[in-house]
Protein: AsnC family transcriptional regulator
Amino acid sequence: MDRFRHSIPTKDVRPRELDSTDEKIIAILARDGRTTNADLAAALDVAPSTAHARTRSLVDRGILTGFHASVDYQRLGRGLQAMIGVVLRPGARHDSIVAFADEVRRLPQVLQLFFVGGADDFLVHIAVENASEVREFVVNHLSTQQSVATTRTSIVFEYHRNAVAAPFR
Amino acid sequence: MDRFRHSIPTKDVRPRELDSTDEKIIAILARDGRTTNADLAAALDVAPSTAHARTRSLVDRGILTGFHASVDYQRLGRGLQAMIGVVLRPGARHDSIVAFADEVRRLPQVLQLFFVGGADDFLVHIAVENASEVREFVVNHLSTQQSVATTRTSIVFEYHRNAVAAPFR
DNA sequence: ACTGAAAGAAGCTAACT
DNA sequence: AGTTAGCTTCTTTCAGT
Structure:
């Protein structure tokens, strides 16, 4: 029992060489993370043990960071997604920003949190039940915060995903 | 061999009742999609066959839509992520917008594509190698397009993810 | 609906090329 | 690095509560 469980990736971020086999593994597992090793090997035209070693290496090197079930929030009664751009107050202290962001990203409504440079300071992607919950989220968790200057909410009408990116700091 | 592979979800979007066991399964598999059924059963304190039936039901009902490996793009030499807000021309025809969006979302740089209502018409989340590739992406695939009025690029400094949302239209 | 047991499949490891 | 082979573990089914 192991199925490529959490190892400790190094901080070495140099892109090592990946051959086409590695790239195929990444592509296949990004599309279907429960592809069996046997199927993977067949698709790559190598022995199962080879596929196994390659995949483990990708996990060990921290290139594949995990496997996650994708959830249809519509069917969970959270059919409304929004992207909220947040602009911070110019004078906001760095550690209060960090504390605030740390709190926001743990909220159950939050799917993703982007720290960005540009017009906004960060973007919050949420999934909730209805429009009033969007408003409630913005009021309760964003606009009343000390560090927040303004927010700008956009309803998400369509959403497409090609890949699942690993979180980073 | 099956491990909950793609079934055909109905279009019934009514949120059916989920008990706490279902919610735990969703939470566990969202965090680690390769949790073995045996471990899942242990965590839920039910028999493996029960955990199995519950999980299958969640997949069959289309609540869990798939399993995906998460990729560290930094280690793949694509250490720069950006979020690009796109505003369309007021006169842009609906089908040309659809065709354009369809093309954009298939580009290998694109991680996610959001159709939104608000200041922007959509948001494109990309991962590329460096700043000049961001520019290249915007120039080649966005700003030169007929339907596009303006774009606004924000570099992503930090990224956090709580969940993987299923794509939707 | 949940359980337990049995059978089949897959993962994992180690020795060899 | 890749392969072959063998052991272990998990998934999956089904008959029985």
Remarks:
- Residues 11-15 of chain B have pLDDT under 50 and may be disordered.
- The domain at 19-69 of chain B is CATH 1.10.10.10 (Arc Repressor Mutant, subunit A).
- Chain B has two domains: 19-69, 73-156.
